[in-house]
What does this fold into?
Amino acid sequence: MRFPHIGLLVAGLVVAGVTDDTTRAQDKASGAASPPASAYKLVEWPAPARSAAGFAAPWNLIQASGVAVTAKGTVLVFHRGAHPVLEFDSSGKLIRSWGDGMISEGKVAGIPKENWAPDRSRYSAVYGAPGCTACGAHSVRVDQQGNIWIVDATAHVIYKTNADGKEIMRLGTKGTSGATQSTFNLPTDIAFAANGDLYVTDGYGGARVVKFSRDGKYLLEWGKRGTGPGEFGLPHNVVVDKDGQVYVTDRDNQRIQIFDANGKFLREWTGTGGVSGLAMTGDGRIVTGAVVRDLKGTVVVKLPDAAAAHGAAVDNAGNIYLAQLTGIVQKYVKE
It folds into this structure.
């Protein structure tokens, strides 16, 4: 179904108070005393929407939680509102939208600090009236075959769809939380190895990374609550490099941990701040929130005027897209 004039119509209820990401609205990225000059230019994106009366209108994306680039070069924006999956061409023109009724209305919320404990999650989900339209929307990714993966955190499920948005597989059990081979507890992201293996960060309620084969067969898992190597406060986003190393943002512990394909801890980058979004570039670098790093963890580029990124993606031309919970998507063109 197409919605050519939904710029002013995309709406939902944003819950006031402590939520999953407003507790860390500032993505503090460090790693270089004086960040290098940027090789990227911020451009206006997407193109303005059009109202039914034909006037230009600002996009009302509620919270943009994820962004991905499809096999044909279009850009998917995943947001917490009506029509949760928006597809644009690279210039920012809306092509179509889909996903209505697909994403849960639960809202991940922070547990008050006085109730924190070292062995428990700092997050829970709120359902019913305090929820909001499609607020389970957390991450969107596209695999090497062009399939689209949708992470619905508060439904505890990850959908695999074809390029048209038709479901062809799912991981987890919709509406059932847990830490088994077939259940998640508020999952956050998914990544893909070159051989098709899948890595899921599980997530807000859990504190583990779960590995599956390309056909969804459970293989192994690692992680527990804590601050040591291989432990997590909040495993938020995950990517895999060409050598099969797995990078996980451990947001609450303000670090990025790196593992081999079987979960063996290799090293960590500390002092990164509460980074959420991750994306690999075609030239072997990694977007970590508002900066680009080499695979040793050194900041090589600071993106100009970049805000906290909940999700990140890179297209074949090397341009970077950052999804912001403030309801915008920033596009950085490689110069």
The two ends are 36 Å apart (CA to CA). Residues 29 and 272 are 5 Å apart (CA to CA).
